[in-house]
Amino acid sequence: MTNPIKAIQTLYFETVAEMKKCTWPTRKELGRSTAVVLTSLAILTVMVMVFDWVSQGFVRLIAGM
Fold first, then answer.
1. What's the CA angle centered on 22, arms 33 and 5, to 5 degrees?
2. What is the distance of C-alpha 42 from the center of its chain?
3. Does pLDDT of 1 surpass 70?
4. Which three-class secondary structure string do you get for the chain?
5. Claim: this prediction has a pTM higher than 0.85
6. Please, are residues 40 and 32 in contact by the beta-carbon 8 Å criterion?
7. From the centroid of its chain, how far is CA 56?
8. Does the pLDDT value for residue 65 go beyond 80?
9. How far apart are CA 62 and CA 58, in angstroms?
10. Which of 10, 31, 43, 58 shows its CA 20 to 30 Å from the CA of 50?
11. Residue 58 confidence (pLDDT) above 80
């Protein structure tokens, strides 16, 4: 069995090395990506609300309410 402290140290150094290889988005790219996500979320929310409203209407029609 290996030394757990040594294993944690190795994990830490490997993680730091991999993080240095990553390319991080610029503030502008991050803003655009956030806008796309929020817009998509808003559109999906409206679609679900419309589907729910239509489904509720059909159920009320079938149930005779």
1. 125
2. 14
3. no
4. CCCHHHHHHHHHHHHHHHHHHCCCCCHHHHHHHHHHHHHHHHHHHHHHHHHHHHHHHHHHHHHCC
5. no
6. no
7. 29
8. no
9. 6
10. 31
11. yes
